[in-house]
Amino acid sequence: MSDPVVEPEPEPTPAAAARPRDRWRTFGAPALAVVTVLALCLGALVGWLAFGERTPPDDGVDAGFARDMSEHHAQAVQMSQLVMQRTEDEDVRRLAVDISNNQGYERGMMGTWLDDWGLPRARGEERMAWMSMEDMAGHDHTGMADMEDLPEGVPMPGMASPTEIQELTDASGQEAEVLFLQLMTTHHISGVEMAEAAVAQATQPEVLLAAQKMVDAQEGEIVLMRDMLAERDATPREDVDAWLAAQEAAEAEDAPSPVPGSGGHDH
């Protein structure tokens, strides 16, 4: 029995052989080009976000806040260390240690910002000049107006005068505790207002985050110090309750309105 004859497969015609190449030219190559362009654009965007120019101006809010708040913090650290040496009260000492450690750390952090931005730590303009910028209109920050009424030797609102620092240096026991709590409450109120101005106008993410943390921490310490003064039959030099109420009202006004249908019930 003879083997079956196997017919050879026909050679593909030139038209059939060219058909896949035609499809590639028509659809594949343009699609690949689009994907490649998109990938390059995405890579450029990611690179810009990660490594792009982020240096704020030397006379802007970010740099001004870093310099002024560093100086403000320096006195808070000084007063905290003074009272730590002049009282045996554990609550006051614990508060003073927290303020000294936290604000000392924040001073270093703000100095590092300036170094990273390639900007000098020393200011080239008046203190708090960044708070007088036109784009601060509409924000209730009166630091620049307060600058005109400062006592001699007081560089910024809220800071203690040289005479008050000497009084704290000479005091001891409960007298030192009360003076420290009063001075630090005044100091914190102005510090919160300065940090709020940075939250409203700064451009650098690290500044915005740190400034908001300062607002939250110092508002909490103001409440604590008000209560500690009451325990010592003393009061702050400011109407802290009215100030806190104004803060709450401002925060409520700035809070975003709830999105309809996102939760809650209307009755």
UniProtKB/TrEMBL annotation:
<feature type="region of interest" description="Disordered">
    <location>
        <begin position="248"/>
        <end position="267"/>
    </location>
</feature>
<dbReference type="InterPro" id="IPR012347">
    <property type="entry name" value="Ferritin-like"/>
</dbReference>
<feature type="region of interest" description="Disordered">
    <location>
        <begin position="1"/>
        <end position="21"/>
    </location>
</feature>
<protein>
    <recommendedName>
        <fullName>DUF305 domain-containing protein</fullName>
    </recommendedName>
</protein>
<keyword id="KW-1133">Transmembrane helix</keyword>
<feature type="domain" description="DUF305">
    <location>
        <begin position="62"/>
        <end position="229"/>
    </location>
</feature>
<feature type="transmembrane region" description="Helical">
    <location>
        <begin position="29"/>
        <end position="51"/>
    </location>
</feature>
<keyword id="KW-0812">Transmembrane</keyword>
<dbReference type="InterPro" id="IPR005183">
    <property type="entry name" value="DUF305_CopM-like"/>
</dbReference>
<feature type="compositionally biased region" description="Acidic residues">
    <location>
        <begin position="1"/>
        <end position="10"/>
    </location>
</feature>
<keyword id="KW-0472">Membrane</keyword>
<dbReference type="Pfam" id="PF03713">
    <property type="entry name" value="DUF305"/>
</dbReference>
